[in-house]
Amino acid sequence: MATLMETKPLVKVENLRKLFPVQTSIFSRAKAHIHAVDGLNFEIEPGSSLGLVGESGCGKTTTGKLLVRLLEPTEGAIHLRNQEGELQDIAHRAGTSLQIFRRRVQMIFQDPYESLNPRRTIFDTVAEPLSVQNLGTLPERQDKVAELLHLVGLTPPDQFMYRFPHELSGGQRQRVAIARALIIDPVFVVADEPTSMLDVSIRIGVMQLMSELADRFGVSYLYITHDLAVARYMTQEIGVMYLGKIVEMAPTEELLAHPQHPYTKALLAATPVPDPRLGRDPIEIKGGVSKPINPPNRCRFYDRCPIADDYCRDNPHPPMEDKGSGHFTACYKV
Amino acid sequence: MTTDILRVENLTMFYGTRGGDVRAVDDVSFTLKEGDSLGLVGESGCGKTSIALTLLRLLPENSKINEGHVWMKDTDLLALSEEEMRHFRWKRVSMIFQAAMNSLNPVYSVGDQIIEALDEHIGLMSKDQSRERVAELFDLVGLDPALMDRYPHEFSGGMRQRAVIAMALSCNPDLIIADEPTTALDVIVQDRVLRQLEEVQEKLGMSMIYISHDIAVIAEVSNRIAVMYAGQMSEMASSYAIFEQPLHPYTYALMSSFPSIKGKKHDLEPLPGEPPNLITPPSGCRFHPRCPRATSICAEEKPPFKDYGDNHFAACWHPLEH
Amino acid sequence: MSYQQTDKPTEQGSFASSAVATVAEDRIHQPLWRVRLSLMWKSLKGSWVIFAESPIGLIGLGIIIFFALFALAHPILMKTVWPRAIYDPVIGFDATLPSHPAAPSIRHILGTDAIGRDVLSQLMSSTSSEFALGLLAAIVTVTLGTTIGAVSAYFGKAVDVIFMRLADLVIMTPTISLLIVLGALIELNLIQLGIVLGILSGFGGVTVIIKSQALTIMVKPYIEAARIAGGNDFHIIFTHIVPNLLPLSFLYMMFTVTGAIFSEGVLSVFGLLNIRMSWGLIIYTTQSSGYLLDFKRWWLIFPAGLAITLLCSAFYLVGRALDEVVNPRLRRR
């Protein structure tokens, strides 16, 4: 969360919520809701990247989909700064204005095997944002695609342009996905676990590529991942999510060095370290993750928290508190 | 004195496909001592799962075992008939498959599925004895025995994985092969399952072979690590030695390509190129096209898997350090 | 700023060997139609290799080719060796023979029917209309089935319910009986029959199958990506979903042809169609002239029946072999 008064965030999310009804039958009204995203607040500075970290079911993917408007929020605002410098709420846009929004925000998916249409050539796929938005003539698009392919390391571009996805490896396909996301010159890209399905020796290459391109084009990322180690290298700030809420948010190195929320501590303690010479602290956490269906009005982490007490049980979910140096934590006990 | 529980000699196995023979495992040799846990690490397609399937003789029809021996205490597993192998499987060697937690039969209770494994391989147990054994196993892996009669969908991912581990343990094998046992699990659950496996291993004195592409997990659970590349073993040593003093450039490259939350944030160096095609693999040392230290001999001759002292093996013409 | 190491494309078919080699090496600015043509050719060759591995596919294809040649031979024979007066399938008459139906001889390889017409000529001349009928029905079915399946899957809810219940209705209704009733009311000609069969098939079982395939496509991330790029419903359905359905549709086309030829045969046997000559009609003539159970005069029924059976089976076999092309999981390694 920006604390300096001068900064003007590129993306500002206010009280974002997404509730999914638990369907019982077509005839009865849903009585229960899954609180997938429950009151998120954060900002992303231009040229900076925010990591959203958490285990499965915490709502990070849903958040990503909300930010690209694949889903519409149930409540709350998603502000994007337009070219004139004004913050505009895109949460409920539709029609042409939604189309215009789509030129500024794109997404990179997790699965390199399923995020490219197997029956369309690489050119078709990468040019899709341009052709769907009617930008440029055919030769211009061909030029732009070639330029992007070259940029993501698929050179010479003409060797890749008219091939099909199945002729490319996983790493190459993910580069195509990156090219597709960047071809329309977006200001903001949501990356949903873009390297988790890639081979380990390929992962770093793709991660580096994404960082370089972010610097070069001034693109901000919302980097969604379950792996804190990966987030460390890709982001300037990390938000830890649990059951639909952000429980801690801080600059990356600060979060890793001085975690405050017990969940963050548990996550850090559980992340295996690729070096047998360095040990790990034992984790203190109980139970397993559950679905946030009609959650009771208390701290979401209460059931698993090793330091929770009656105060935590009897009071609503703690608000995010400023702990100094850009570090925010939602916990009564810290 | 610790004995060898497994001795693999010159194992070679190909898959026959329309495009040619895929040289999935090419002249691999290694030894496993009793009580050891060996981590087999490498990228996808390097042959680690193929080795596991070969050890258990669970290969598909189009596979050919061309050469080699797999010695488990004076028995060559590759020389056994299918009938004889059936007696071996599960009782002496068992396996936890990749994404096994998704392959539990949804229409049978978890307990029944373990009982089925017991019946199949041990047989001659009364219903009560079987149930007692299942309760024992559940306890061992940290599951509440009362859940024995529940169905897989009532278990969480981590619990299912533990049930699968229980199944693999059911006949008290000497060796368990775990193929990516925690890949699909969340990090906190993964931690639990790994610790459980370590506990079980200590308690029962079992040997384990851990297969994964995730160096971080392997570093945690194995005391010996073997690095595989393109169907061949490139390095093998104790875990400490592999990290402290890697000899093979590929090993070194793998180490530098893993982000870590601990320690200084070092620059990550990506490894250029892609893993090779195993139908027409590169000549000589298969890593030479991607290797920063390669010279002409690397392209011509395959380097031998040498012992550099202290049970540290590597196959390289220009190893680091030495 | 340095770029990443170049990744070489995998060894699956070098681009340089494509059928259309451009002289000027500007491979980037090729007109798209040329690119798509050469890619289609490449993929057809690949599919052929897989198809050709299946013996039943080759047998089926062989039979189809045989019948195609069979059909082509008729006008050639009529122009050269066969005088129209005798060999015309509808109005020919061989006055040189004492009685009709006449047994097979050198002049009439399959004999003549009850009113003196050469049976082989009848068989050959009908072949092209059988093909045409099958093709028409198949095209109508596939167009309808694919569009409805895709739309149903995409929009869901009311649209889906309507089309699926309609499909249930069509599946429940026995086709032949329906056609017989229809045929009794209106005498259908071949084109009308083709369209009717196409519509019945298109709204029926094929739609359901294609819809479930469309459902699996809709949850793929590339559909989401298309939406995020700004694609509207039309774009997503016709640029992404339908092309991925086409292999399946093509497969079912084969089975539709089978059904169409067979249905026509049945209807013609009952004399319910308004056509001049077809295989089924040969059998009808046999029946109406009282020779249906006359097994001594086998040439009156057996060739026609065999032709129907063979051509139907041929398309079915090709369909089964195509299954392996369309469905990679069925392929042998």
Mean pLDDT of chain A: 89
Order of helices and strands of chain A: EEEHEEHEHHHEHEHEEHHHEE
What Rg of chain B do the Cα atoms give? 20 Å
Topology-level CATH name of the domain at 11-104 and 192-199 and 219-329 in chain A: Rossmann fold
Q: Give the CATH level 1 class of the domain at 11-104 and 192-199 and 219-329 in chain A.
A: Alpha Beta
Strand content bin of chain A: 15-25%
Outline the low-pLDDT stretches of chain B.
none
List how many beta strands of chain B DSSP finds: 12
Query: Could you state the CATH homologous superfamily of the domain at 11-104 and 192-199 and 219-329 in chain A?
Result: P-loop containing nucleotide triphosphate hydrolases
The largest sheet of chain A, given as strand count, sense and whether it forms a barrel, is: 8 strands, mixed
The helix/strand class of chain A is alpha/beta
Write out the strand line-up for the largest beta sheet of chain A, numbering strands in chain order: 6-7-8-3-9-10-12-11
Main sheet makeup of chain B: 8 strands, mixed
Order of strands side by side in the largest beta sheet of chain B? 6-7-8-3-9-10-12-11
SS summary, helix count of chain A: 10
Which shape of chain B, going by the Cα principal axes?
A: globular
* CATH architecture call of the domain at 11-104 and 192-199 and 219-329 in chain A: 3-Layer(aba) Sandwich
